[in-house]
Amino acid sequence: MSEFDTKLVHGKPENDNQTGAVNVPIYNSSTYIYPSADAKVKFDYERSGNPTRNYLENQLAILENGVQGFAFSSGSAAIHAVLSIFSPGDHLIISKTIYGGTFRIINDFFKRWQLEFTAVDTQDIAAVKAAIQPNTKAIYFETFSNPLLHVTSVKAVAQLAKQFDILTIVDNTFLTPYLQQPLNLGADIVVHSATKYLGGHSDVVAGVAVAKDQKIADKIYFNQNSIGATLSPEDCSLIRRGIQTLAVRMDRHLSNAKKVVQFLAKRPEIARIYYPGIAGSRDHEIASQETNGYGGIISFELKPGIDSTEFVDNLHLIQLAVSLGAVESLIELPYKMTHAELSRKEQLKAGITHQLIRLSVGIEDPNDLIADLSQSLNQVSERQRVVN
Ligand SMILES: *Cc1c(COP(=O)(O)O)cnc(C)c1O
């Protein structure tokens, strides 16, 4: 069997064309011919299946080591389809710090459909255990939380969940299968916003799910086909292409992130850096045991008195935008941008201060990134001196 990096480039061939094309074609066909009315056809209608999507879904299943993959029109659609396998009255334990959009689907949508939820710190296994009820059906979390990169052990949660016959669902967006394969650590379902690292170029919104076991896969397939938020063939092709360069991109994200952290650690304007690669925390310990790298996202706090808005506004190369995981570096102020929906009190409870910055480190030359951060830090600290 090929090594992982080879699998990224070469998926399972569709053997569907006579032209010798090295890539699976983009099949823009909503419907497919039956050779006869009694024929059993592989494809009949695009929502149910499409060869371009099929290629991508097989590739995802191989990379995450599951039985079946699914491609959706967004990460949110993938999460919606996965959570829709549960029934009214089922209880789910969720991590306290999940993606805001996921929290919104849970709180404003699934609660109306009588799913019950308890939010806990999933790093604290005793707390997870204490939250288990007779009707608990799943535990849902992100291995690296957003924006503070708090790390949950997939192994520890899955081990506990198995004892109680509960499913473990992991949002693997921040790590990708290159850095962690949750199904190999005991999880049952993996979801991704493929908009981020899998696509990798900020040009497509997509989501994926992969199931470990066929019974669960059948339920997700039912939801994918019946709810219908499938990924278009063009977008499937873009994600397929993104995945082919995942290893080389992630290696550069990792080495750049490490250099940026080293730079920030030396700057007097920085009060605190959140990055699981920094030794001395439980987050670092878990990440070291269960991942092949600490990711490309860094959060940090500017010292009090330094104007965080001015700092991000003064950057020239690093772009001020939400989203993450693409080739270009993106920076944002969680309290004003990604986490603006939370009240001030909720933000502070989640550790989101006005000084907190989230940086998605791209694959540019690290010296240019550091020079940009440096010139903006110089400006804001100079301004602070003048004001004082
Ligand atoms: C972006 C994101 C999502 C939502 O995905 P969309 O593609 O934007 O719908 C879910 N989980 C995480 C961790 C994300 O970063």
How do you describe this structure in short?
Helices cover 38% and strands 15% of the residues.
Walk me through the structure.
This is Cystathionine beta-lyase. Keywords: Pyridoxal phosphate. The protein is of the alpha/beta class and 388 residues long. It folds into 2 domains: 4-244, Aspartate Aminotransferase, domain 2 (3-Layer(aba) Sandwich), CATH 3.40.640; 248-387, Aspartate Aminotransferase, domain 1 (Alpha-Beta Complex). 38% of the residues lie in helices and 15% in strands. The chain is built from 14 helices and 12 strands. Strands 1-7-6-5-4-2-3 form a 7-stranded mixed sheet. Helix 2 (51-64) runs parallel beside helix 9 (233-244). It binds pyridoxal-5'-phosphate. Pyridoxal-5'-phosphate binds next to helix 3 and helix 4.
Keywords for this entry:
14 helices, Aspartate Aminotransferase, domain 2, alpha/beta, single chain, Aspartate Aminotransferase, domain 1, 38% helix, binds pyridoxal-5'-phosphate, 388 residues
Q: Based on CA inertia axes, which overall geometry fits?
A: globular
What low-confidence regions span 5 or more consecutive residues with pLDDT below 50?
none
Largest sheet report: 7 strands, mixed
Number of domains: 2
Helical content (DSSP H or I, runs of 4+): 25-40%
